[in-house]
Every structure is written in C-alpha cells, then in structure tokens.
C-alpha cells in the first residue's frame, strides 16, 4: 500500500494547502505550532508536538476526502431509511456528503474539532473512526501512515514557506475526479522563509 498511499497523501496535503489559502488564520496557527519545535526538519518524533497540524490533515480528509465512494455489500436483509436492502446488494456511501452531513458545521473547515476536550491533543478515538479511511474490518491499513506522513510533509512545508496563497483566484479550484479527487487549477505561490 506504499504506492497507493503516496498519491492519496499528496492529494490530502494539496487540499489542505487549498484550505490554508481560504483560511490564513488556520495556516498561521499551524505554522506557529511547527515553529515551536525549534528545529528543522520536523521528524516522526515530533508528531506528539504537532496536534493542530495533524488536525488540519484530519479535517481536510473530512471535508475533501481523497476517495469519493465507500462501497459495502449487504450480508443480510437490512432496513435502511425505510427501505429493505437484500443480501448481496452493494450500497455505496458518498464520503464527502456523509462526513459533512454528519458533522456539526457541515462543510466549514474547523481543524480544532479533532482536538480533545482540553484542546492539547488529537482525540485519538475520534480520529481512529474517521470515515475517510473506511470502517470496520476493511478500514484502510495505511491510516496511521497517511496521518504521520501527511503531518510531517505539511509541517515541513509550513517550516520552509510563508504566505501560502493561490496565484490568482482560489475560487477557480475544482475537484477533479479520477481514482482520487484531486484539486484542479490549484496554483500556489509560496514565499521561502529561510535562505
């Protein structure tokens, strides 16, 4: 799953940078957390010190999941929304619709929703059950790797670049659906922080 995971992680980070263009205050908060590390580059050992950055990855996966659909085959007769679903029927969940409809604030980008009650750590129970990774026994085996790799990649970008913004008008960015949902027309301008 290393090959499959690389594209999905890259698309997740790209979408996160898109949301940073829309929410510079969130971008600044994440960068401040990275700067508190006091060294470069961020490493896997720094993950516990980057809860808000990880929450940005989790929130990106909630509002803009890289995979569009989550199919499940019904194994026994089940009632769903007042309808009888027979065994063998494939039911497909539209991930983005489900995750935004089931969350307070819908499509609003709020990374802090993934923090625990005191706001100092990622709520691991909630993160573990993230629908963007599927669910049950077929949940994505690369979930942990994606979160770690995405967090470190995003932290590295934030450490090295200031004022990440779209080159023209962020409203032209569209979701292009192939196997994954990638941001089309996402042209970023980044100012290097250090020489």
Let me know the average pLDDT.
88
Query: What is the fold named in CATH at topology level?
Result: Cytochrome p450
Distance between the termini: 36 Å
Strand content: 15-25%
Element-level helix/strand string: HHHEEEEHHHEEEE
How big is the Rg? 18 Å
Compact overview of the structure:
The protein is of the alpha+beta class and 195 residues long. It has helices at residues 2-22, 24-35, 51-63, 95-101, 124-128, 143-160; strands at 69-73, 78-80, 83-85, 90-94, 161-166, 174-177, 181-184, 188-192. The radius of gyration is 18 Å and the shape is globular.
Description:
One of its GO terms (molecular function) is monooxygenase activity. The chain is α+β, with helices and mostly antiparallel strands and 195 residues long. It has one domain (2-67, 100-192): Cytochrome P450 (Cytochrome p450, Orthogonal Bundle), CATH 1.10.630. It contains six helices and eight strands; from the N terminus they run H-H-H-E-E-E-E-H-H-H-E-E-E-E. Helix 1 (2-22) crosses helix 3 (51-63) and helix 2 packs across helix 6. The termini are far apart. The mean pLDDT is 88.
């Amino acid at each position: 799953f290393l090959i499959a995971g690389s594209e999905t992680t890259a698309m997740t980070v790209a979408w996160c940078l898109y949301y940073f263009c829309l929410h510079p205050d969130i971008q600044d908060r994440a960068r401040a957390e990275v700067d508190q590390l006091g060294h470069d580059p961020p490493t896997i050992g720094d993950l516990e010190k980057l809860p808000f950055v990880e929450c940005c990855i989790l929130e990106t996966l909630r509002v803009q999941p890289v995979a569009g659909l989550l199919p499940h085959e019904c194994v026994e007769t089940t009632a769903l929304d007042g309808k009888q679903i027979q065994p063998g029927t494939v039911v497909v969940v539209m991930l983005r619709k489900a995750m935004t409809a089931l969350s307070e604030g819908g499509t609003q980008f709020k990374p802090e929703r993934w923090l625990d009650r005191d706001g100092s750590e990622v709520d691991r129970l909630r993160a573990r059950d993230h629908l963007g990774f599927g669910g049950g026994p077929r949940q994505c085996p690369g979930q942990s790797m994606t979160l770690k790799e995405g967090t470190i990649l995003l932290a590295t970008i934030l450490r090295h670049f200031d004022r990440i913004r779209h080159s023209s008008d962020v409203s032209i960015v569209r979701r292009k659906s192939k196997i994954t949902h990638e941001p089309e027309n996402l042209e970023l301008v980044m100012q290097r922080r250090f020489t």
